Amino acid sequence: MAAATQLPISVSEYLHRSYRPDCDYVDGVVEERSLGELDHAALQGALLVWFSQHVRQRGVRAYPELRVKVSPTRFRVADICVLSTTAPREQIIQTPPVALIEILSPEDRVSRYLERLEDYRHMGIRNLWVIDPAGRRGFDFSSGNWVETTSFADPNTGIRLDLNSLFSSIDDALGDPGNK
């Protein structure tokens, strides 16, 4: 079966439509995002709890599923967006966040994620972190390279997120010792 060709839409049309779940907008094309699985949701929830418990005093707040305007014709929806408490209050984020965390789903392709992460880098976001819940791995893409890591840190805010502890908290909450 042939794939349907999607006609380009304007930025205004994208911004005035509702998508469930929200979609990215790339140069006139609405792109669906992968999510909706337990591992993705559990990890996203655990990250929000961690940020609310650990970094409130650091001058940052974490939000799920925020639209980020990375260029005039590109909007990305970040899994977790970490904003400075001193950043302007924007309904669609245009000021570079302190950090973005993306959570991989099984059907995500590296080439598509590379384009997404490069969009974030070109916007000026200094901390780009990717977590693969299936492989229980973390990658720091801040330098433009996939650097595997067991923790994420931002020296400017003092954020230090240990992934092993994060995965343990998910296992405890789900009653799963990590064996799949």
Lay out the secondary structure.
Elements: H1 11-15, E1 24-26, E2 29-31, H2 38-54, E3 60-71, E4 74-84, E5 99-103, H3 110-123, E6 127-132, E7 137-140, E8 147-149, E9 151-154, E10 159-162, H4 163-174
Parallel strand pairs: 5-6
Antiparallel strand pairs: 1-2, 1-4, 3-4, 4-5, 6-7, 7-8, 9-10
Helix pairs in contact: 2-4
Walk me through what this model shows:
The chain has one domain: tt1808, chain A. The termini are far apart. Residues 1-5 have low confidence and may be disordered. Strands 1, 2, 3, 4, 5, 6, 7 and 8 form an 8-stranded mixed β-sheet that branches. The protein is α+β, with helices and mostly antiparallel strands. Helix content is 27%, strand content 31%. Helix 2 crosses helix 4.
Helix content: 25-40%
User: What quaternary form is this?
Assistant: single chain
Could you tell me the number of beta strands?
A: 10
Number of structural domains: 1
Q: Identify the overall geometry.
A: globular
Radius of gyration: 16 Å
Mean pLDDT: 87
List segments where confidence is low: pLDDT < 50 over at least 5 consecutive residues: 1-5
CATH superfamily: tt1808, chain A
Distance between the termini: 34 Å
Q: Which structural class matches the secondary elements?
A: alpha+beta
Task: Give me the strand/helix succession.
Answer: HEEHEEEHEEEEEH
Q: Gist?
A:
The chain has 180 residues and is an alpha+beta fold. The protein has a single domain, classed as tt1808, chain A (Alpha-Beta Complex). The chain is built from 4 helices and 10 strands, in the order αββαβββαβββββα.
